[in-house]
Amino acid sequence: MRSNPKIFNTWAVFHILFIMCTCSYSAYDKYCRFYHVKEVEAVNNVNKKLFFNAPMLYYGRFTGTGAGYGFFAPNIKSAGIILGDCDGNKIGANFNNFESMMRFSVLATRITDYIINKNDTSGIRDRSLKERYYDLVFKSIAVKIYNQNQCLQDTSYLSYNIFMFPTLTAYRAGYRNYRLAKIKEVRLVKQAK
Hints:
- By secondary structure, the chain is an alpha+beta fold.
- It folds into 2 domains: about 5-65, no CATH class; about 80-190, no CATH class.
- The protein contains 6 helices and 4 strands, in the order H-H-H-E-E-H-H-E-H-E.
- The protein has helices at about 5-35, 40-50, 55-65, 100-115, 125-150, 170, and strands at about 80-85, 90, 155-165, 180-190.
- A 4-stranded antiparallel beta sheet has the order 2-1-3-4.
- The relative contact order is 0.11.
- Keywords: Membrane, Transmembrane, Transmembrane helix.
C-alpha cells in the first residue's frame, strides 16, 4: 500500500496549526487570569467555536494536542520557595530523602496556587476557613524550617517567594539573573519557657 504525501502533508499542517492555536490561546488565557485582565470576547468566542466541538475535543484528547503544552508558554506560574534569616544566614528547608523533598514541593505548589488564585481546587468552599488553612500550613512549614536550622534568635521572619525571571526584552539587554519576589511573610517569635 502506497501512502499519499498530500494527505500526510495536509494532516501535518493541520496538526501543527492545532498545537499552535491551542498553545496561543492557553498562554493568552493564563496571562489574562494572572494579571486579572478581561479576555477579549471575540477571541474567547472564536476559541470556543473552533476547539470546543466534539470532533476537535476528541482529536485533542486522542493526540494530546489539546493539552496546551503550557510548560512552553510565557507567563506560567513560577516555582515557590520559603526562605528566612537565622543568625545572619539564609535558611531553607532541609530534606533527609527525595520523597520528603517531593512532598514539600507539592505543598509549596499548592500554596503558590492559593496565593495567586484564591479559587483553588482544594475543595474547601468557606473562604475564611480556606485562608486560615493555608496560613496554618505556611506557618507550620516556617516553624519546621526555623527548628531544623536551630535558630537561636528570638524573632525571625520567613517568607514565601516566587522566582521572577527577566522578560525577553531585559534578557536581550543583558539582564539574565532571576530575582525573588516576596509574596507572603510570617514572623516567628520564640516563646519563653
